[in-house]
Design goal:
The complex is a heterotetramer, with two copies of chain A (about 200 residues) and two copies of chain B (about 325 residues). Chain A is mostly helical and about 200 residues long. Chain A has helices spanning about 5-30, 40-55, 60-70, 80-95, 105-120, 130-140, 145-165, 180, 185-200; strands at about 1-5, 100. Chain A has nine helices and two strands; from the N terminus they run βααααβααααα. The radius of gyration of chain A is 16 Å and the shape is globular. Chain B contains eight helices and 14 strands. The chains are: A mainly alpha (about 200), B alpha/beta (about 325). The structure holds adenosine-5'-diphosphate (2 copies) and magnesium ion (4 copies). Chains B, C: GO terms for molecular function: ATP binding; glycerone kinase activity.
């Protein structure tokens, strides 16, 4: 068994069905230092992607492209753009393939992370979604069972979120309030936790 | 919130309709979501010049569409970056085979989305490149100037790039001269009152009746701290001092100056600020070769003003004075 | 009072200094008391066109000095008529042997002082005549239209008279066409907030946070009564209805429209008002042959807007589009 | 004895010396419905005129012209302009004369009133300084003693002020508050009373 367009479809639809309360939580979190639109971005993004699932091709690379395109249309917020960037990078990586071994997912995430760094200009340690990704990648490397992969990713994301809580934000809107951001969860890192939790069947 | 508006959710689109209704010879609304403003007809045989950014700063960004200025512009929601799609549409509209320059304010969303739009354009064999405007000296120290916000300096970069493209510069030349302009621009603002984002319905920030914030960003981002409202001469001096510390002005230098209103400050007060600024720069022996006073980059009904200086060389001065025509700027 | 000013008693003179500093090619300060603003050089061989009035309405009055516009202007204190002397000085400056037209807002002091200045000028063998602008339909019913205040319609009368003089009209012709313009202009305003006269230090009038006053004068004179702040479409409709009742617009009519900001209202909101106004006039089958949106006649930091219509014939349309050049108006 | 430039000089200087409290009172009165500048106009006007007295010619007509010119420089307010107008009209009337019989003073006032009506466009009955003048002219006609003339003028002015108090203002700034102006003394009419009182030796 391996990761296919069908998995992508199911994942998107599953999150879409569960995104309501996550959206509210993320708007509130983002509103404390940022502009409070992270939840809106997620809700609209998953709605758009789930509409796009209907016409998704079997080519996993192209399917990821479709998801990326759907994500670009939600808003100009950073998280949406970074997610679109990640999906596009992953898509490029597996273009022409119908599936990806589970053990290769970490590599896919790595390519996504690289693109996000290139796009957003943030560094590891800046207290962003990048730090969640880094923790996840480290944890799921060499994992070949989808269930274990998901569990490990979720707990890595939780740990990352919590361990960065008392550090200052060094990029994005929250940067200008760096001091005030100490003690607050980064909204993007918190979002990753909730999205992974929502992926549980 | 005392605004002359209809439903907040229609605010941006209705204002665009008003602009197109008032100036049909200049602005047309296009794009799949109606968020690309463009000239009625593309201009063949020149480098395209586009921009895009959050709404609520008219004439920035889309107001500067016109001859010798922008060809098209992506329009976001109030104070929020447009998504990638109207940026791509703007690039497509402005592309006539010679490439497209995107003038982008230094905000995360704007930059990332334009990067993505440029990549997408490349897939269609359109070469699109970016110049980032980051002129707000209050936003970060010189060592971290890449973290500075783009504010009223956008106006000069647009004027220079638009003039270069109209004069037949190729893409690289246009980008280079726009970058040279950007490198030579410094701005600083002062806010007296907040504005209100229509959909938020309450002021973006609180500020006491006797307080100002020097260096506050055009969305209410913190500046260099609150202080008491003093005289305009004192405030202008503080602003000019910061600009000069960042990039000195020397005797004989030729400089362009823009004293800009944020939206609710009467032009009378802008002239008071200009009066002081000119006296200060004259003391240094500088020549104010180009002067503008007015509302050129705003934050809806925010009260306050900004001062922008651009250090000139012959090329920049010539392009600054070249013909241009939109409802908000004419040479 | 949150203003970027120095000492209130120096406010007017310092703003004038700022204007002259910013635009030395357009404005010069003259007169015994420094209250005559004028072109750097008089223009020979044409009818002179001057104005004068209270301060705090920039670009009205003196801002409209420039080619195809005014030659000189008397500057009063904030919201107070200049005395006779700078009016006489303006007439003297603008006189090159072909007579001088004075464009005067319909305020007691302005009218009386200009009358006196014209008499004084006559003693020096300068023929100076007056056109009175009285366009505010809210100030009095049509039967008493001579009691109407002059508001943003001044801008059109100035443009028409300035163009006529530049085109070689003689004094009587210039006066007649300016009068024709004045007769064809109707305005109405809406105020959302008060302004503060610097030397008074407190707002000129009180108005609740959810109230507007339609027809309020540019110094806070009562209009047609307070009402709740509703949508801009509703407010624009009320304003347009009043204008149309006063002077109907018929299918095929050619009309100029100015949606004017009073000083603190963002241009975004002016475009919303324009959007509605254009739709209403288009419904009637009128042609909006000339459109302007912006701060053309202000009351310092008063929030609000006005709509001015001028019914056009071929002569007025031609003069309206003739070349003109000042920092606030260019054709 | 007759009215001469010397009388004009003395009158101006006398009022100038006593104008302080009158100015305050008139500012307050004018401030209730108008713009509160009537006192300033009077104070500055008499200061300017008293400076002009030094170089006043013996020709009474020219002397009145000088006073008018001094008055035009004070401000753009209605009262100042009307006073300048009145002085100019009176001056034209007696140009070339060194004196005017006291009994002709009423005629001089009449010429002044005519000019003020032509300049200001107000009518008798509008509750302005014109109504004070009308009352004074009616009262002092045929009077040839300066003392009696002054006394009669002052009492006529008082009566006019009081009898118009309960009528509405029909012109000038106060017109727009016509209803509110009922019950309030017109500032211009009140000013005439105080100026005449101040003329008492
Ligand atoms: N340059 C960046 N690189 C990586 N992650 C970023 C960057 N900027 C913001 N983020 C992440 O996005 C989250 C905010 O997303 P969002 O609310 O969409 O941004 P905004 O509204 O500020 O554009 C932050 O909590 C952070 O985790
Ligand atoms: N048109 C006019 N004709 C005669 N008198 C007038 C006229 N307008 C005003 N006045 C008189 O002048 C007085 C107000 O004077 P002032 O305060 O100088 O006027 P403003 O400040 O309104 O220009 C009024 O009380 C009235 O008596
Ligand atoms: Mg956000
Ligand atoms: Mg955002
Ligand atoms: Mg007054
Ligand atoms: Mg006055």
């Amino acid at each position: 068994m391996a990761f296919t367009t069908e998995n992508l479809r199911t994942s998107i639809v599953r999150i879409k069905d569960r995104i309501g309360p996550i959206g509210d939580e993320m708007n509130a979190l983002d509103g404390r230092l940022g502009d409070g639109d992270l939840g809106v971005t997620l809700v609209n993004g998953f709605r758009n992607m789930s509409e796009a699932t209907e016409a998704m091709p079997e080519d996993l690379g192209m399917a990821l492209f479709h998801a990326a395109k759907a994500m670009t249309a939600v808003s100009g917020s950073s998280f949406g753009t970074l997610m679109a960037t990640a999906l596009m990078a992953a898509g490029k990586n597996v273009k022409g393939q119908k599936e990806v071994e589970w053990v290769e997912v970490a590599q896919l995430l790595q390519s996504a992370q690289d693109a996000m760094i290139a796009r957003g200009g943030a560094k590891l340690g800046d207290k962003t979604v990048l730090d969640s990704l880094a923790a996840i990648i480290a944890e799921v490397r060499d994992e070949d069972s989808p269930d274990a992969l998901l569990n490990k990713a979720a707990s890595a994301a939780r740990e990352a979120r919590d361990s960065f809580k008392d550090k200052p934000n060094k990029i994005g809107r929250a940067r200008v309030y760096a001091d005030k951001s100490i003690g607050l969860e980064d909204p993007g890192m918190a979002a990753i936790v909730r999205l992974l939790e929502a992926l549980h069947p | 919130m005392k605004k002359l508006i209809n439903k907040p959710e229609n605010y941006v689109d209705e204002v665009l309709q008003g602009m197109a209704a008032a100036h049909p010879e200049t602005y047309a609304i296009g794009g799949a979501t109606g968020r690309m403003l463009h000239r009625p007809q593309p201009v063949a045989q020149k480098v395209g010049v586009v921009s895009g950014g959050g709404f609520g700063h008219i004439p920035v960004f889309g107001g500067y569409i016109g001859d010798g200025l922008l060809d098209a512009c992506a329009i976001g929601d109030v104070f929020a970056s447009p998504d990638m799609n109207p940026m791509l549409e703007s690039i497509q509209f402005a592309s006539t085979g010679k490439g497209v320059l995107c003038i982008v304010g230094n905000y995360g969303g704007d930059r990332m989305n334009f990067d993505m739009a440029c990549e997408m354009a490349a897939m269609e064999d359109i070469t699109a490149v970016k110049v980032v405007v980051a002129d707000d000296v209050a936003a970060a120290p010189p060592e971290e100037s890449e973290k500075r916000r783009g504010v009223a300096g956008f106006v000069y970069v647009t004027k220079i790039a638009g003039a270069a493209a109209a004069a037949g510069y190729d893409l690289i030349q246009t980008q280079n001269v726009a970058q040279k302009a950007a490198d030579n621009i410094r701005s600083i603002g002062v806010a007296l009152t907040s504005c209100t984002v229509p959909q938020a319905g309450k002021p973006t920030f609180d500020i006491a009746d006797d307080e100002i914030e020097i260096g506050m960003g055009i969305h209410g981002e913190p500046g260099v701290g609150r202080s008491k409202l003093t005289s305009v001469d004192t405030i202008a001096d503080q602003m000019i001092d910061r600009l000069l510390t960042d990039k000195p002005v020397n005797s004989g230098d030729r400089v362009a100056i823009l004293v800009n209103g944020l939206g609710a400050t009467p032009v009378e007060e802008l002239y008071l600020m200009m009066r002081r600024a000119k006296a200060r720069l004259a003391d240094l022996g500088a020549e104010l070769a180009h002067i503008r006073v007015g509302n050129y980059a705003t934050s809806m009904e925010m009260a306050g003003a900004s001062i922008t200086l651009m250090h000139l060389d012959d090329e920049l001065e010539c392009l600054l004075n070249a013909g241009a025509d939109c409802p908000f700027w004419r040479n």
